Amino acid sequence: MVHRSFTRLFSLKNAPWMERYFVCILILIAATGMVISLMIGLHQSVWFDEGYSIMLAQRPIGELISLTAVDAHPPLYYLLLKGWISLFGMSELALRLSSVVCGGLATIAAGLLIKDLFSKRIALIALPFVVFAPFLIRYDYEIRMYAFVTLIGVVSTWILVRAWRTRRVKWWILYGAIVAAGMYTLYMSAVFWLAHLVWLLVMTRQQKLQITRQPYWLAYAADVIIFLPWVPTVLSQLKSSALPPYMDSVTLYQLTNILGQLMAYRPGWQIGAWLSVLLVLFVGTFIYVSAKVWQRSSKVQRGGLLLLGMCFVVGIGFYALISLPPNPPRFLERYVVHISIFWYALLGVVIALGWQLRLRRSATLLALVSIVVLTLGIVTTVRIGNYNFQRLQYVQAKAIHENLGCQDTTYVTAGPFGYIDMKYELQGCLLKYYYPREVSFAGGFAPVNDSHDQIRDSQGITTKRIVYVYYDDSDVFFMPDGRFHAVTRRSFDKTRVTIYEQ
User: N or C end of the chain: which has fewer CB within 10 A?
Assistant: First the structure.
């Protein structure tokens, strides 16, 4: 049955149908992914990183830029989110759509890229592996820059192919502009440009062209000049403590962790015996089919496979290199999000080419194993949502608000982290954070430096109830004055709540 379905898809009789409806099918596939991601996202709490994005987007432009200068990321995404909010408002639907739309456009761009590198039918078979990718689904609803950078990466790769094939200056100018936009959005987008450069050098050598006279050097040189004004800020950020505290190095365990997250949305420590069997079977089959596809592919097809592979592998290699001692660890699993789309695209292309090049049994096995593991990943994504794998906790702000309400209540969080973590979901409530010392103007806490919502005691609280919210790792503990006494304690996963009443 599976054999017949793929055979019909690849038969020449379907060619006019593919030509006629390709764009419509492409949009429909992308829309499906958008709906899935949005439906999952709207059931999640806005968490610290997302709350930080929203807080910055609400600040004046000058203040926004100064805040990003003391954090870990450049300002372009926050400026675009600010514009989005001015048009569509602050509802959770609108905010999550800002990323979901980018994810959908990235899928469309991936389809156009695969079509240009291979064919329309290959693109249509490969794209479901991009759409039903748990890691992308998870971060396509995140109110952060990852979906936008994914879009930049895919569009820039598509334009790169156009520029290389046509040799037209306009494509190189457009490519250079997108490279610059990527660097002002996420520094880790540099892995795209490194991967592109590796591919360009390989293609230049294959075609026996003179490397020093290629137009892509001008595009890269222009980008360096455009980014130079921000370089002092980058150096300052690297020297400061603005980097997240949960960084890792790319070790053998982390490679397993990356594979588990990409395919099943499970970190390495959650990969059990049966999932291990499936992943080992997947890796072995993928390597076998990829090798056979490479042997049987044309020169043009090999160039496409190389480009997709480089856009993923070079990124992993770069993260490993910058985390080698004596450098501090500089890797988080979410830094793979924007390159992961190339992994899923490569997987789909290898399966599709395997069928086209008459590797039907092995390609079918690879497809079935991939579908099983990705389905498990989607189920896990639906079940745990934006689970924080660094802090090992579920985000509970929405549940706390729904259960405890706001009437005659002041919420007090333990420190600025809880304040930013809870702020969006507790809109309409009185929210303060207890912190007995000054919050420095640096890192993710900079937006609450010198905030009127910081308290050092409970003297100014006039409501009848205080809900104190803290975590297992909170480094401060709030005790209200004698007017209040503790009436109950509750736990929402690892978020603790003590309720005081007068």
Answer: N
